[in-house]
Amino acid sequence: MLIPFDDYPIHQTALPLAHTAGGHPNHYDRFWFNGYTEDLYFAVALGIYPNRGVIDAAFSVVHDGVQRSVFASGRAPIDRTVTRVGPIGIELVEPMRVNRVRVHAPEHGLVADLEFTTRTPVCEEPRQTRWSGTQLTMDVTRATALGGWTGRLEVAGHQVPLPPRVWGTKDRSWGLRPVGDPTPTAPDNAVPQLFFLWAPLNFADGGLHFMVFEDGQGRPWAQSGSLLPLLGEGDPVTGGPGREVQHVEMAHRLRWMPGSRRSAGAELSIRLPGGTEVVELEPLLTFRMRGAGYLHPTYSHGRWHGELVVDGEQHGVEELDGLALDRVHVQQVVRARWRDRVGLGVLEQLVIGPHAPSGFAALLDGAPQQGAVETTHAT
Predict the structure, then answer these.
(1) For position 234, what pLDDT does the model report?
(2) Cα-Cα-Cα-Cα dihedral of 357, 363, 368, 373, to 10°?
(3) Nearest-CA neighbor of 69 among 267, 224, 234, 300?
(4) Greatest Cα pair distance in the chain
(5) What's the CA gap between 123 and 238, in Å, rounded?
(6) What's domain 27-181+190-377's superfamily in CATH?
(7) Which phi and psi (to 5°) does residue 358 adopt?
(8) Residue 177 vs residues 131, 327, 331, 378: alpha-carbon distances, Å
(9) pLDDT tens string 290-322
């Protein structure tokens, strides 16, 4: 089946672009954006799962102590240029550089018309591949860019004034990842395990990005550290001469909040030619990723709900504390201090199952009351 993009010379296989190269049910292609100030956070996710025939999206805001979300799910369009479902849409104004997010769900207290403009080169993270025995469970490419937002946001019927500087992140990822209802497999008695940190940080003169996956012993199996310069006028989104992404060796030190799997503070160390430098991260605000569909008990990614379903929810942020599976995946807005710079970014944390350096032994046990301190050197 053909779509308009088939007229471009961009094919990677003999298949039309509407078809994936393989029939794995967990193939996905997703947009993710966040935006934040010290006391406001919003996020939008939109994913297409062609082998499940599903498109879904969510928009969520943390404001005045409340996390509000709207979810939409429907039948996936054949034409992949259609990036809208129900009241949520993403427009590629200029690929990789300018995107527009529109949401119209006043019945769920959310209306937005926001534009994201990339301010750093797009950073391609290392391919993330994971096997469970003979089963390929994850095979993902992710591209991350830092940027800023302008536009209009309305929450609970009231316009939220946006300051001149609203920083954020664009994340485009695609490949294979557990989505939708699980496919039947042989029983596995092992406790599920995942340790993931993701930290895109905006500074006035550029950005910094850190990512790591670790096994239960704290050994990294995918990782990256990147310095992101500002794009100059006319620079390509991959960076102009002298403005390319610079990959560096980084490590993390995380202080867990006692009784939780949420950070009480963190440090990132960067190995540079002149020596090791430390970036201190101070949490300011917490967003539970269930608000954008991640591990949501009903609207998790890739599930079939019918031709079109739109729903919403709201919670006081304190109601979302705890160690439930749908609450441990978080992004914290963090104040970042690096040399004389003070920036703003997020520290995403998803820690399920054992992780020896943190003192976690079960599926969702919390940090010891004295507070666990973890150090991992990413190489």
Answers:
(1) 87
(2) 30
(3) 300
(4) 61
(5) 8
(6) AttH-like domain (2.40.370.10)
(7) -90, -10
(8) 11, 20, 19, 23
(9) 999 999 999 999 999 999 999 999 999 999 999
How does residue 379 score in pLDDT terms, banded at 50, 70 and 90? very low
Q: Which two tokens stand for residue 56?
A: 């879904």
pTM above 0.85, yes or no: yes
Distance, CA of 41 to CA of 37 (rounded, Å): 7
DSSP 237: T
Q: Closest by alpha carbon to 26, among 50, 45, 46, 55?
A: 50
Residue 75 tokens read as: 């039948």
Q: Residue 239 — left, alpha, or beta (φ > 0 → left; ψ -120 to 50 → alpha)? A: left
Pairing of strands 167-176, 158-159: unpaired
Burial class of residue 369 in the structure, from the number of CB atoms within 10 Å of its CB (0-12 exposed, 13-18 middle, 19+ buried): exposed
| Residues 6 or more apart whose Cβ sits within 8 Å of residue 219 | none
**Tokens matching residue 63:** 């404001």
Phi, psi of 71 (to 5 degrees): -120, 145
| DSSP codes of every residue in 308-366 | EEEEEEEEEGGGG-SS-TTTS-EEEEEEEEETTEEEEEEEEEEEES-BGGGTB-SSSPP
CA-CA-CA-CA torsion sign (161, 280, 33, 55): negative
Given a cut of 90, whether residue 360 has pLDDT beyond it is yes
- Angle at alpha carbon of residue 361, lines to 356 and 363, rounded to 5°: 125
- SS3 percent helix, strand, coil of the chain, rounded to 5, is 5, 55, 40
Q: How far is CA 379 from the centre of its chain?
A: 23
Give one DSSP letter per residue of 152-209, joined into a string: EEEETTEE-PPPS--EEEEEEEEEE---SSPPP-----SPP-EEEEEEEEEETTEEEE
What are φ and ψ of residue 73, in 5° steps?
A: -145, 140
Task: Kindly write down the DSSP assignment for every residue of 78-131, as one continuous string.
Answer: SSTT--EETTEEEEEEETTTEEEEEEEEGGGTEEEEEEEEE-S--EEPPPEEEE
